[in-house]
Design brief:
The structure holds two protein chains of two kinds. By secondary structure, chain A is mainly alpha-helical. Chain A has helices at 8-36, 65-68, 76-89, 106-112; strands at residues 43-45, 58-59, 116-117. Chain A is elongated and about 80 Å long. The chains are: A mainly alpha, B alpha+beta.
């Protein structure tokens, strides 16, 4: 069998196909990028200063497991471990005890600190 | 499914046989030429229905043209002339059928249109399901008579369960009839159209005091009853042995029992696109037929006897799982295929598909709008059309590899064929579906096959029954584990807006051209090139085209409650309140989320909660989780409700802080639009009776010369405070405070605002809106719209005037100034 002679139209078609594909993917990528962009940044202008809201706070020693799972960065698994630590140790003496729970590092600790108390 | 066998060298003794020689059985010439009368009949009938839907040609013209062309066609024995004349008359028949369907619907709507008290006599045709609240639900087939009821024989009955009814009983009852609601919100389900496809026209509610009399009890020898008892015992033995999720999955898969199906499993399966396995459909019927054909051939029956026996069993199977449209459709298709096998030995693959399609849309043209109908016919069509192509191009491969590649390409082609329809109906783009189906179909094949053995043999004997059930349970658990793993693959599925009709048209045009490339004398690559040019125009056109600059406010119809979406002229969204949530409905999930998806949003920019009452905060926990807003505003007067707590927990989980807004605040940053907060004052009003309502967040949205005022749930004290606050209250549109509730100072308030139009977001609960409000609006000659009457209201402002579109009443726009 002889090797096929390269057909110029065939090659052109391949090149055009490739270029169109790249341009289409770029277009779709741009559309997706624009969708992800925030449409505006809001700023509150006020005569009176806005009041901060106290966040919903969960007690490390009393909250139920499913409530703890709602903390930022804490899923059901970690909540289970926190409760396990609580039952094992009796209670959390200080907030830093959280660092003893396996899976909670300093970064996560900082993140959940505003939402937890001891009581 | 394996391909139906194709004839290889039979001499062309009749048209059907000649067609069988073509590998795909359907070619563009076949639809117009004289080769395949059946296909051309179906084609022209379908085109006729479509023309009827979109163009409404005059009745008499199509009637006479149809009759005349049928008569002209009669003397021609065969050939092109006969086919084209019969084609024209079928085309006219299609138009007439659609007219007839519309006439039937009008008749029914006049008969059923209003809610009313009525007597009805009929037969219980489904197994009554006891529900919570001590009720039972079943379908009743009305006894035929001459009035329009006879056209829609089925109604759903909800009755007290102090005496459970039996399947097959004839009863006479009195109740309160209400028709099914049509779509009330953008992206919302159209229950009326959905149930119309099932010949169901409404609900009868029977109260405790209403009479319900038994006319005739059940015959002991009824086959249906026997089948039903068998099905009940099967479901009971599945649910008794297996863990709950597996049991629900299996009883849906095997006998189509979807009562108490866990919603989270449903959501998982629909996300990865395998939910079609749960509604018994063509797929199941196909498996059952294939298993039986294989088994009966193995035990040495002849081809015809095999087909005959399978046909008989098919009838039994359809009776067992119940005559829902998808089952009827698939059963019809399989039955036609088998009959073809019995009569001609070689039935061409496209014929049963075309014939069942024609029969079904003749019976009920409204099927054409149904998602399940579209999806099942489209996927079978794509499978049949691509199979031969895939098989020829994969010829060089050896069998195990070849089989895998074949399934891979067919699955991919099916996904490619149906994704615009999925995006249209479910606002979902799930490329993962083709992978999921690739795994799911062998699994369910296995499950249905084992299940079939269990149904036929195993369930009679406790020992074999438990052994087979254990096998089923293992297979089901591993299938579910696999589905969960697939669902975790990133970018597997995401929500997209509804595609434009133009996109769908072009897409399917190219798809068909690709399938029939050889008939069109084009190479497949050139067609792909054309498609790519089109896709480029679409993508870059969407990206570069300036968007129409309007401020759009959508007041959702959420029953009792409030929810409105603002879409800003340069892009960006703000949701004001989220409707209610109770044990029956979560407005966030069922109304607002689909509407947002349909418009192509998978994120919200900002959410504003006017106050923490359940009818305003209810839908928000779900929406905060699904749409991750970047800003959350509230009045700061925390409600004690559990829903508010859920909402705050969702915020905490999203790492988002709430910002409290008060009178005098202004939100800037949205191009050309300013948001002013007119209420609540600092300090809050106290001792007003209902402080949450009177301290609601009142927002005024100004876009050039138009302004929209969202007046939350203010009552007299709040309105009085607003009136004395010396702020500019004037607005073009006002959302009336507190769902149109009674306001002593309503007249002064309306005069201060001087709106050109009023919106009342209300669901007729707690005697809202009050008659007093209507009088005030009438005396000031202010036009008003209520969501309970009009469905969702869409208000568009171009900066100088407002346009109000009423969703429920045809969406026609009412132009304001």
């Amino acid at each position: 069998v002889l090797p096929k002679a390269p057909n110029p139209t065939d090659r052109l078609e391949r090149v055009v196909f490739f270029l169109l594909l790249v341009s289409f993917l770029t277009g779709v990528g741009l559309l997706q990028w624009r969708r992800q962009q925030p449409s505006f940044h809001l700023e509150v202008l006020s005569e009176s200063p806005t009041l901060p809201v106290s966040p919903v706070v969960f007690s490390l020693n009393h909250a139920a497991e499913e409530d703890l799972a709602k903390l930022p960065g804490v899923g059901p698994k970690l909540a289970k471990r926190i409760v396990a630590y609580r039952t094992r140790q009796g209670r959390f003496q200080v907030l830093e005890d959280l660092l003893n729970v396996k899976g909670i590092g300093p970064a996560l600790y900082e993140k959940i600190l505003p939402y937890v108390t001891l009581e | 499914m394996t391909p139906p066998p194709v004839a290889d060298g039979a001499s062309a003794r009749n048209n059907l046989r000649r067609l069988a020689k073509q590998p795909d059985g359907l070619s563009p010439s076949a639809t117009g030429g004289g080769v395949t009368p059946l296909l051309s009949v179906v084609f022209s009938f379908t085109v006729g229905i479509l023309v009827g839907i979109f163009l409404h040609p005059p009745f008499w013209i199509s009637f006479w043209v149809g009759i005349v062309s049928a008569f002209i066609g009669l003397p021609f024995p065969s050939g092109k002339a006969a086919t084209s004349f019969f084609g024209i008359s079928c085309f006219c028949l299609g138009i007439l059928r659609w007219e007839g369907a519309l006439w039937e619907r009008n008749l029914l709507e006049n008969a059923f249109g209003k809610e009313k008290e009525a007597w009805i006599e009929g037969v219980v045709v489904t197994d009554p399901v006891p529900s919570s609240f001590g009720r039972q639900t079943f379908l009743l087939r009305r006894k035929a008579s001459r009035d329009p009821w006879a056209l829609a024989p089925l109604v759903k009955v909800i009755a007290p369960a102090d005496r459970l009814l039996d399947y097959g009983e004839t009863i006479l009852l009195k109740g309160f009839f209400s028709p099914f609601p049509s779509a009330r919100n953008p992206g919302g389900p159209d229950w009326r159209a959905y149930f119309q496809g099932r010949s169901l026209y409404g609900t009868f509610r029977v109260r405790e005091t209403d009479p319900m009399l038994r006319i005739k009890s059940v015959g002991l020898l009824s086959l249906n009853r026997w089948l039903l008892l068998w099905k009940r015992s099967l479901v009971r033995s599945i649910k008794g042995v297996l863990p709950s999720q597996e049991a629900s999955f299996l009883s849906a898969l095997l006998v189509g029992d979807r009562a108490e199906f866990p919603p989270e499993l449903w959501e998982l399966l629909s996300r990865i696109g395998v939910v079609h396995l749960l509604s018994i459909s063509g797929f199941h019927v196909g498996i059952v037929v294939l298993c039986l054909l294989f088994f009966l051939r193995r035990i040495g029956l002849s081809k015809r006897k095999t087909s005959l026996a399978t046909l008989l069993f098919l009838g039994l199977f359809v009776a067992l799982v119940g005559p829902a449209p998808p089952i009827l459709r698939a059963g019809l298709m399989a039955a036609l295929y088998l009959t073809g096998k019995i009569l001609w030995r070689q039935a061409p693959p496209f014929h049963p598909l075309a014939a069942s399609f024609a029969v079904l849309i003749f019976l009920n043209p409204f099927y054409l709008f149904e998602a399940g109908f579209q999806l099942s016919f489209l996927s079978v069509f794509v499978i049949l059309a691509t199979l031969s192509f895939v098989q020829t191009s994969l010829r060089p491969f050896r069998n195990p590899v070849r089989f895998v590649l074949e399934s891979f390409w067919v699955s991919a082609a099916v996904w490619g064929g149906i994704f615009p329809v999925v995006a249209w109906h479910f606002h979902l783009l799930n490329p993962i579906a083709f992978l999921a189906n690739l795994c799911a179909i062998p699994y369910s094949f296995l499950l249905v096959a084992i299940g079939l053995v269990w149904l036929l043999i195993g369930s009679w004997n406790p020992f074999s029954s438990s052994a087979l059930l254990t096998m089923l349970s293992w297979t089901a658990s591993s299938a579910l584990a696999l589905f969960r793993a697939i669902a975790r693959i990133p970018f597997g599925s995401f929500h997209v807006g509804r595609p434009s009709p133009l996109f769908c048209l072009f897409y399917y045009g190219f798809f068909l051209a690709w399938l029939w490339a050889s008939q069109l004398r084009l190479t497949r690559r050139r067609i792909l090139l054309g498609a790519l040019v089109f896709l480029n125009v679409w993508a870059w056109g969407t990206f570069l085209c300036p968007r129409d600059e309007v401020l759009r406010a959508t007041f959702f119809d959420v029953g009792h409650g409030d929810a409105a979406l603002l879409e800003f002229p340069k892009g960006g969204t703000l949701l004001i309140d989220g409707g209610r949530r109770d044990d029956r409905v979560d407005v966030g999930r069922e109304v607002i989320a689909p509407a947002l998806w349909m418009r192509g949003y998978d994120r919200l920019d900002a959410v504003l909660l006017s106050h923490a009452d359940a009818d305003h905060v209810g839908g928000l926990p779900t929406l905060l989780k699904e749409f991750h807003p970047r800003y959350f505003f509230e009045s700061g007067l925390a409600g004690p409700t559990g829903l508010y707590r859920d909402c705050r927990a969702a915020l905490t989980q999203a790492g988002l802080d709430a910002t409290v807004l008060q009178r005098g605040n202004r939100l800037v940053g949205i191009p050309e639009v300013t948001l002013d907060i007119l209420h609540p004052p600092n300090p809050y009003l106290t001792g007003t009776g209902r402080d949450e309502n009177n301290n609601g967040l009142v927002l005024k949205v100004t876009y050039w010369e138009t302004a929209l005022l969202f007046a939350a749930d203010l009552e007299e004290n709040g309105v009085a405070d607003l009136l004395t606050s010396r702020q500019n209250l004037s607005a073009t549109l006002i959302k009336f405070p507190h769902h149109g509730g009674h306001l002593d100072n309503g007249r002064e308030f309306l005069q201060a605002v001087s709106p050109e139009v009023t919106v009342i977001s209300v669901g007729r609960l707690y005697s809202l809106p009050s008659r007093h409000t209507f009088n005030q609006l009438a005396s000031l000659k202010i036009p008003f719209f209520q969501t309970v009457e009009e469905g969702a209201l869409v208000v568009e402002s171009d900066g100088t005037s407002l346009k109000v579109k009423r969703f429920r009443n045809g969406g026609e726009s009412v132009s304001m100034w």
